């Protein structure tokens, strides 16, 4: 909503700037010098009693505390407290006896209810019932736990590995076997004598590739379900 703007805003500004001057915060420029006749006299600051009014035509003025003519005093009604108390006792409900516990043979007794021996809290209607705030908090915690588990499962599904289908598995096996046959053909075509460093390195490279292909083919043939990470 828009800010409230008073209708008297301009008038207040005008009144504030009306008597404004440079010495406003420093006091007036000229101060009236006190007169020499206005000196402090003795007992001039003490409170003085108002002068008494003169009597008019020889009649005294009535004091202010006199009540008016329309005032009627309240007459007190006498009450019979004995009969009143007797009626209250007869019509009232009798007091229930209080439970006491006597613990000595001399008759020393004490109240049973505040001692903790009286089953006061067990007889309550809501005894053993969880308060509403506890049940609400448990429900909120359970709902938050379910939401957290759902979010974790969703994240795991997103990060889950992909399962290769049977068709893709067979295609990959065929491609691996084809590569192995090509590398094996190249390996069989190597010269018998490897007298140079290049020939030795080329032979070792082909052997490593063949071993890796054989390992991959054996792993895929052994396991029917293959998972691929994203």
UniProtKB/TrEMBL annotation:
Domain of life: Eukaryota
Subcellular localization, as worded in the UniProt entry: Cell projection, Cilium; Cytoplasm, Cytoskeleton
Keyword NADP tagged: no
GO MF annotation terms: calmodulin binding
Disordered: annotated segments: 19-59
Coiled coil: none
Enkurin domain span: 136-228
Name of the protein in its database record: ENKUR protein
Native organism taxonomy: Eukaryota, Metazoa, Chordata, Craniata, Vertebrata
């Amino acid at each position: 909503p828009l800010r409230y703007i008073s209708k008297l805003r301009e008038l207040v500004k005008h009144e504030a700037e009306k008597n404004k001057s440079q010495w406003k915060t420093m006091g007036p420029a000229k101060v009236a010098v006190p007169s020499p006749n206005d000196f402090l006299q003795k007992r001039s600051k003490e409170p003085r009693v108002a002068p008494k009014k003169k009597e008019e035509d020889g009649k005294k003025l009535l004091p202010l505390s006199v009540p008016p003519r329309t005032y009627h005093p309240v007459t007190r009604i006498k009450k019979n407290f004995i009969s009143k108390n007797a009626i209250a006792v007869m019509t009232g409900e009798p007091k229930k006896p209080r439970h006491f516990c006597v613990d000595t043979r001399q008759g020393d007794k004490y109240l049973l209810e505040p001692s903790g021996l009286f089953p006061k809290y067990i007889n309550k209607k809501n005894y053993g019932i969880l308060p509403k705030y506890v049940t609400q908090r448990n429900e909120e915690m359970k709902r938050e736990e379910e939401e957290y588990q759902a979010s974790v499962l969703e994240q795991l599904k997103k990060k889950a590995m992909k399962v290769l289908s049977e068709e893709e598995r067979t295609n990959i096996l065929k491609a691996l076997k084809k590569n192995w046959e090509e590398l094996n053909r190249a390996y069989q075509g190597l010269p018998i004598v490897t007298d140079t460093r290049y020939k030795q390195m080329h032979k070792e490279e082909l052997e490593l590739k063949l071993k890796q292909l054989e390992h991959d083919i054996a792993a895929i043939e052994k396991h029917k379900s293959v998972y691929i990470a994203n």
